[in-house]
Write a structure and sequence with these properties.
This protein has 255 residues and is α/β, with parallel strands linked by helices. The protein is built from 9 helices and 12 strands. Bound molecules: adenosine-5'-diphosphate (ADP). It is found in: Cell membrane.
């Protein structure tokens, strides 16, 4: 059997007294496309941020490509970061945010070249070549010298995708990447994600409110509700055929 690329084992997360994730168990296979849906505040972003190592779990294990990110004591309580594993794993995971997070003072080509040069230690020429390839892939080969402020929201989001892809991650995380866009720009961004998904090898985790898109792209859908995975299955099982009442009432908002 193929080893999962991402595993969560009984992961809990509290902010102060509030427990926002209450025991998440999850296996994601290499190349699997997983959509995460659920009401606002259910913990979707926290899951993504923990995988990106931006948040630490309160307890539980997060294992990426066979590496456990955090050290536990013998009672299973979290002790500290496993710095070596964190460093290795950060290179394996790419993320696209809701608000693009591009560097405003750099051209889009420079935006893409920065991480390969500084994190992966690629030489400038190789980084440039890969960045141009990725910007062409997302349909922006004619905008290399533009600055982010000269682009539409949809184009900025496509730059953000190229910038993540150029690191050749094993896992790509997409956190509501279309929710800050004008409705007419959503389609072009989803189209690029669909293309990347079809290419195959990478695992993808997509937090999304686009149900048709999830049906089309996701192998597996998780419904997160109040910090637990309340329902999971194929996209069709979860989005079209579940009898879970809270899921049904959540989905009604999108019909
Ligand atoms: P979702 O992405 O499903 O909307 P989030 O993961 O963003 O949910 O948030 C889950 C809960 O955790 C919310 O109640 C939110 O207010 C809380 N939360 C998230 N981040 C923090 C933080 N840094 N400090 C305190 N509370 C937080």
């Amino acid at each position: 059997m193929t080893e999962p690329i991402v595993t969560f084992q009984d992961v809990h997360k509290s902010f102060g007294d509030v427990e926002v994730l209450k025991g998440i168990n999850l296996d994601i296979k290499p190349a699997e496309k997983v959509a995460v849906i659920g009401p606002s505040g259910s913990g979707k972003t926290t899951i993504i941020r923990m995988l990106m190592t931006l948040e630490k779990p309160t307890s539980g294990d997060i294992i990426v490509d066979g590496k456990n990110l955090w050290k536990m004591d013998k009672n299973g309580q979290l002790v500290d970061a496993n710095e070596k594993h964190l460093r290795e794993v950060r290179g394996d995971i790419g993320m696209v945010f809701q608000h693009f997070n591009l560097f405003p003072h750099m051209t889009i080509l420079e935006n893409c070249m920065t991480a390969p040069i500084h994190v992966k230690k690629e030489n400038k020429q190789t980084a440039k070549q890969h960045s141009i390839q990725m910007l062409e892939k997302v349909g922006l080969g004619d905008k290399l010298d533009n600055y982010p402020s000269q682009l539409s929201g949809g184009q900025k989001q496509r730059v953000a995708m190229a910038r993540a892809l150029v690191m050749r991650p094993k896992v790509m995380l997409f956190d509501e990447v279309t929710s800050a866009l004008d409705p007419e720009l959503v389609g072009e961004v989803l189209e690029v994600i669909r293309d990347i998904a079809k290419e195959g090898e990478m695992a993808m985790i997509l937090v999304t409110h686009e149900m048709d898109f999830a049906l089309d792209v996701a192998d597996k859908v998780l419904f997160l509700d109040e910090g637990v995975i309340a329902e999971q299955g194929t996209a069709s099982e979860v989005i079209e055929h579940s009898s879970n009442e809270r899921l049904q009432s959540f989905l009604k908002r999108f019909r």
